[in-house]
Amino acid sequence: MYLPTIEMHEPATLEEAAALLGQYAPEARLLAGGTDLLVDLKTGRGSARHLVSIHGIGQLHGVLESKAGLRIGALTTISQLDGLPIIAKRYAAIQDATREMAAPQIRNAATVGGNIAGAVPCADLPPVLMVMNASIVLWSAAGERTVAIEDLFVGPRETILCADEVLTAVIVPDPPDRFGAAYARFALRDGNAIAVAAVAAALELDSDGTVREARVALGAVSPTPKLVEAAGASLIGRALGDDAINDAAEAAMEAAEPISDVRGSAEYRRELVGILTPRAVATACERAKELRR
């Protein structure tokens, strides 16, 4: 596999990046970590004559913590995100995903923004961020807009991003007391295997242990990462016994839209959802019991 002839551009600002995208559209692509894009170009699954590398744009790097939560720059790598103490302490579900994702070499290059904007159905971060009520910041020369992450995805590798827009940051709200989230995935082997099926869950508990709020999202078993409202609703107002958890699992299995491929049949993937949902919900519940300001 060889890369086709491509001209590389390295803007220093978002404005310069936008101008380059406009100048060379529709044959220009943004380059972040390149772990998906370069493979697509080598295999012919994607095409481009111009790559606009955004690595020199300083404002897209790093993580800012405030009382409101986290602002994660789009060029923050998976390894950098995984290594932050605040992630392990208050945003453990994100670390569930970053620890499982690919091999170390890939995590050192892959970016948070790329994992989201690529809109690959089996991407690990989107389901987690969905249940944590995250939003994304999209920038263009015409202005900036913030949208809920679940509203980003249109189809496999398709998003609402306009041709001149750049995903600049992810906003994750500070979790309230008695909030917990978790991510459970299944892959065929360790290393760089992508998820065959994945489930993220988040709960907020009342003081008596009943569920006040709940969100469940699926990965790798539908055309896009999918928030399953019925699964979350089935838990609200209930103590987390076997009946409640089984109801959530049934709702998640019903909402799954898996395909059959070399990694597993549709039926196998649906069964995995039924196994992974209780795991994610139970871990989220344990974390919710422990989280206090």
Backbone structural class:
alpha+beta
CA-based gyration radius? 19 Å
Residue share in helices?
25-40%
Main sheet record: 5 strands, antiparallel
Low-pLDDT runs: none
What is the overall number of helices? 11
Q: What would the average pLDDT be, to the nearest integer?
A: 93
Overall, the morphology is globular
Topology readout:
Blueprint: E1 7-9, H1 14-24, E2 28-31, H2 37-43, E3 50-53, E4 63-66, E5 69-73, H3 78-82, H4 85-90, H5 92-100, H6 104-109, H7 112-117, H8 125-131, E6 135-140, E7 143-148, E8 153-155, E9 158-159, E10 166-173, E11 179-186, E12 197-205, E13 211-219, E14 226-227, H9 229-233, H10 242-255, H11 266-290
Parallel strand pairs: 1-3, 2-3
Antiparallel strand pairs: 4-5, 5-10, 6-7, 6-10, 8-9, 11-12, 12-13, 13-14
